[in-house]
Amino acid sequence: MACNCEGIIGIAFLITNILLSYTIIIAGVFVIHIIFIALWYTMINKVDGELKNKLIVSLKENFIEDTVTNLDPISNAWNHMFMTLDCCGVNPVESTSNDFDHTPWCTTVGSCQDNTSQIPRTCCIDVNGMTYPSAPNACHANVTSGTYNAKGCFEVLKKKLLSQSPGSIGVVITIMLIEIINVTLAVAIGCHKD
Question: 173 and 123, same structural domain?
Fold first, then answer.
């Protein structure tokens, strides 16, 4: 805001020093925007692998029960995510052997460890916070195709995040174009005065 006032004052009163400092500030901001865009595209690929690994570790260490009322808030969050995003696990669920096999829910205690479930009831199609307890056995016990959300949550989250990219990049590019116009006008006015 102060930078815009500086530019307006410089243009209104044709003060060359103010126009020069305005031009330098806007050029610096322009460079920062270029760096932002470069980092955005660089980090997308890096985040891809790291995010997936962190999600797998979180699921393996924290998924303890296929309910939304247990004492572990992270386990509850996983179950809410399965129902909200219509996904299941981190990777797509293709059979009874899946991401849940190494979770406490399957190895220590839970309906998976008891062999009554292969995937959480919260992964079943068309369940919500009220109806998941009565999810059909064909879904959570038999993992019958078409009864559960087969998509992995990583791909669903990645798609949601990447859907925001074009809009964000578009705004930055629009701002950069305005900055180019402002710098060009400031330089032209400054040169014209002399």
Answer: no
CB count within 10 Å of CB 115 equals 9
Each residue's pLDDT tens digit, 123-152: 999 999 999 999 999 999 999 999 999 999
Structurally, how many domains does the chain consist of?
A: 2
Structure tokens at 124: 């079943």
Report CA-CA distances (Å) from 194 to 15, 16, 180, 182: 10, 9, 21, 19
Domain-located, residue 146: yes
pLDDT confidence of residue 59:
95
**For 40-74, how does the pLDDT look when each residue is reduced to its tens digit (9 = 90+)?**
777 777 777 788 899 999 999 999 999 998 888 99
pTM: 0.67
Q: How far apart are CA 48 and CA 161, in angstroms?
A: 11
**Are residues 16 and 107 both part of a single domain?**
no
Residue 188 tokens read as 């032209």
Same domain, 173 and 146: no
- Taking alpha carbons only, the member of 138, 120, 127 closest to residue 67 is 120
| Domain of 35, in residue numbers | 1-49+166-194
